[in-house]
Amino acid sequence: MQKIPGYENTNSEVPDKKYWLYGLMIVFFALAFRLFELGERVLHHDESIHASFTLKLLEHGEYSYDPAYHGPFLFHSTAAVFHFLGITDTTSRLVPVLFGVATILLLFLLKKELGKNGVLWSMFLLAFSPSMVYFSRFFRNDMIIIFCTLAAVTGAFRYLDSIHSLKRYPYLVLAASSLAVAVSSKENAYIILAVFGAYAGLGFLYWICSDWKKENMGLKETLRSKTSALLPYLPEIILSGALSVFIIMFFYSSAFRYDVSLFSIVERAFNHWMEMHSIERIGGPFYYYIPILLRYEIPVVLFGAAGFFYFLFNRVRNKGQNYSFFLFLCYWALTSLLLYSYIQEKVPWLVVHIVLPFGLLAGAFLGEVFSKKNKDGQPKKPDYPGKIRALLTVILVLTLLVFISQCISVNYYRSMEDEELITYTQASPDIRILMEKIEGFNESPDTLRIYVIDQYQLYWPLPWYLRDYERAAYSSKPPSSSKYDAIIVPISCDMYRELSEEEYSSYNFTLRPGRDFTLYYNNKLEQQ
């Protein structure tokens, strides 16, 4: 097996001490941005379902894989957080936060490909990306997938770079275990496996064909030679595959407490999501992600697109300088954009899977353009004339100002505004007021009789916020008994046809955009 050629990057402008200092400062602020007021936003419909499933797993040890709610890793890892740190909105989001920050830390392992400046720029863009920050503060699986995707890429390239050294083993484990955790987290891991697998297959064929022509041997001799070159690495590859299967089965069987098979897991995932794609459950136009990218990720889009063409077609720059890595990065960015645009499950959180490769391209491009020294420390000849560099600088400054302001706005001021393209049926802050009202009743959580009624059973996240109310009940129609203290129904249901206006008061609130409800409660509940 051959070592990938040309692993020296021209960009080594930042001294080691400053490189680590700047990098760790970015990580620190990335963590601070993700933790600040983490529990302030009301849990989204999906977040509340995930949190309730996690609570059920923690308290009763019950788990059953349902592809509609994705894989088990998020539930099991968050159950551990709940056990040690308590059950709150804040703790429910800690796992995505940690994986979002860990993604940025992974970039340190790509210094050889991106260069120091490229690593720092990539870290900066991913650390303050509005969508990356938002969904790192969101109790879903996508930031776990983002980390695992980058970890698999990093592990693979570091493994190939260390192929003749014992240092390669940890990187193989990193790649294998990351892909296993991805499969245990969400079904779009199969898309990632297909994208990466196709590229690996094409690379393998190119490796065989190019050497076949160079060595002027017959096809059988070439295949025999390549097979013999791969044989020494086969045991460790098989073992890493076994490790992946073990991790997947460990989580899907809930620590081997339930009987499941790998085939049934894959079959259920494919059947469910192929059906969702075919019926276009949450469909949208092919360009669905473009407005989101242009609104929130301007520098990633502009400089990522510039990096795509710069690294793909700049032959002088690419000659022997990480071309294999950047060719893969361009392929990854393009296929991610096209595949997620094609799949008829259009939701804002999937945009992070497009932002990741384009963010790396943008960071690498900025690292190249604004580098002043070559790898030997000598002044570097600029890639662009002074006027173009000045124009790029102005564009960079302006887009970064928009970038940071959008990050702050959508995460801390408008995180529950339905006008934001990224929020998507976010639960209303009215729920906080509702809970304050219910908690102010003179009945305790273990005695208050409260019913939540909706014929479509779209009352989430109320079950999460009413989790401590032991006598809370949920139904698609009013209860047969009229013995209740409070009832929550869609605003279109006028309960005063059944309840006395003298005995019951009402409070209207918005659950989420387009879903208005009314709380009817006995006046005695407010008597002191």
Automatic annotation (TrEMBL):
<feature type="transmembrane region" description="Helical">
    <location>
        <begin position="119"/>
        <end position="137"/>
    </location>
</feature>
<feature type="transmembrane region" description="Helical">
    <location>
        <begin position="390"/>
        <end position="413"/>
    </location>
</feature>
<feature type="transmembrane region" description="Helical">
    <location>
        <begin position="93"/>
        <end position="110"/>
    </location>
</feature>
<protein>
    <recommendedName>
        <fullName>ArnT-like N-terminal domain-containing protein</fullName>
    </recommendedName>
</protein>
<keyword id="KW-0472">Membrane</keyword>
<dbReference type="GO" id="GO:0012505">
    <property type="term" value="C:endomembrane system"/>
</dbReference>
<feature type="transmembrane region" description="Helical">
    <location>
        <begin position="325"/>
        <end position="343"/>
    </location>
</feature>
<dbReference type="InterPro" id="IPR019962">
    <property type="entry name" value="CHP03663"/>
</dbReference>
<feature type="transmembrane region" description="Helical">
    <location>
        <begin position="19"/>
        <end position="36"/>
    </location>
</feature>
<feature type="domain" description="ArnT-like N-terminal">
    <location>
        <begin position="69"/>
        <end position="209"/>
    </location>
</feature>
<dbReference type="Pfam" id="PF02366">
    <property type="entry name" value="PMT"/>
</dbReference>
<feature type="transmembrane region" description="Helical">
    <location>
        <begin position="143"/>
        <end position="160"/>
    </location>
</feature>
<dbReference type="GO" id="GO:0016020">
    <property type="term" value="C:membrane"/>
</dbReference>
<feature type="transmembrane region" description="Helical">
    <location>
        <begin position="68"/>
        <end position="87"/>
    </location>
</feature>
<dbReference type="GO" id="GO:0006493">
    <property type="term" value="P:protein O-linked glycosylation"/>
</dbReference>
<keyword id="KW-0812">Transmembrane</keyword>
<feature type="transmembrane region" description="Helical">
    <location>
        <begin position="230"/>
        <end position="252"/>
    </location>
</feature>
<dbReference type="GO" id="GO:0000030">
    <property type="term" value="F:mannosyltransferase activity"/>
</dbReference>
<feature type="transmembrane region" description="Helical">
    <location>
        <begin position="286"/>
        <end position="313"/>
    </location>
</feature>
<keyword id="KW-1133">Transmembrane helix</keyword>
<keyword id="KW-0328">Glycosyltransferase</keyword>
<feature type="transmembrane region" description="Helical">
    <location>
        <begin position="349"/>
        <end position="370"/>
    </location>
</feature>
<keyword id="KW-0808">Transferase</keyword>
<dbReference type="InterPro" id="IPR016950">
    <property type="entry name" value="Manno-Trfase_MA4085_prd"/>
</dbReference>
<feature type="transmembrane region" description="Helical">
    <location>
        <begin position="191"/>
        <end position="209"/>
    </location>
</feature>
<dbReference type="InterPro" id="IPR003342">
    <property type="entry name" value="ArnT-like_N"/>
</dbReference>
